[in-house]
Amino acid sequence: MTADRDEILQAVSSAVLAVTRHLSVREVLQVIVRSAQRLLDARYAALGVPDEDGSFAEFVAEGITDKQWDAIGPLPRQHGMLGAMLRDGVPVRLPDLRDDERFEYWPKAHPVMKDFLGVPILDGRETLGIIFLANKRTPGGFTQADQELLTLFAAHAAIALTNARLYERGRELAMLEERNRMARELHDAVTQKLFSLRLTAQAAAALVQSAPDKAAAELERVQRLAGEALAELRAVIVELRPAELDRHGLSETLRKHVRLLDRLHPASITYECAEVPPLGSESEVVVLRVAQEALHNALRHSGASEVSAKLSHEEGRLVLTVRDNGSGFEHGETRGLGLVSMRDRAGAVGGRMSVDSAPGRGTTVRVEVDV
């Protein structure tokens, strides 16, 4: 048992160190799941953190590919064995999960799980989450010793998870304070420029008839002030980085957004992400905003039944592709300010955007940003 306890200490150490590296709660959950899977030699491992709406605020798994996740569909709700474990707050060990009366069903693409071991992660009487393993690789299934080992690991994992939550809340408070500071700066600087802009425009209008040369000079000043105001506004907007990006990163934030849209719209909306390198803060915000705008356009205007978003890495560039099978449009046809706004956003970080569309052939928006 000493060797097992040493392994637990190493696994818990990894989870605690994940917090000290300033990783998000989700990344800490992933460390915990991988550690448990390795510790007990399980093919599948998962950890779910419940929300208040009968589903899971977070759900991470090992042993299931991204392609399988996309086929399985939305996050699980608190039904069947997961719901029972949340209600009862006690470990569950079974030779075959499917034979238990609490088991209900799996989605069609879900892998078959047999031997099962689930343990709640507790903070006093509060259930922070459930960690469960399935299909032990070594013959014989999970043992009582395995259950005791996972229960001990879960008790330590609760500390790592609680610390990660506290760190994240502290960071969110710091971000809120920073946003308040920027709001004050926005009021003091940009509002002042806009006020000067209005007065200068009024002066130019008054001089148009009596002194055209002076009016022209005032109009040049209007142009300069407008450019300065726009630059300051852009700087503030870029600084207002979505909290989700800090919590989950670009790929996971976009995945969550796509899943939400898929639940809200009749069209089938999918997401694919290869292994992509990290982007600069400003570029991450731009790629996310462009993706959101492109998805919104496809769902609102194209009449598409299928929409897909994809992040990939090609020749030193991060590539965002949003494709739909909707009505499409002729090149040069006016499509509102959406495409102009997306192209401007991409250009602001040195990226480039292209649009491929034709009537009846759908639309593909592609954005490339250097990494």
Walk me through the topology:
Blueprint: H1 2-20, H2 25-39, E1 42-50, E2 56-62, H3 66-72, H4 80-88, E3 92-94, E4 116-123, E5 126-136, H5 144-207, H6 212-239, H7 243-264, E6 268-273, H8 281-301, E7 306-314, E8 317-324, H9 338-348, E9 352-357, E10 363-370
Parallel strand pairs: 6-7
Antiparallel strand pairs: 1-2, 1-5, 3-4, 4-5, 7-8, 8-10, 9-10
Helix pairs in contact: 1-2, 1-5, 2-5, 5-6, 7-8, 8-9
Short note summarizing the structure:
This protein is an alpha+beta fold and 371 residues long.
Spell out the key features of this protein.
371 residues, alpha+beta, Beta-Lactamase, Single alpha-helices involved in coiled-coils or other helix-helix interfaces, Heat Shock Protein 90, five-stranded antiparallel beta sheet, five-stranded mixed beta sheet, 9 helices, elongated
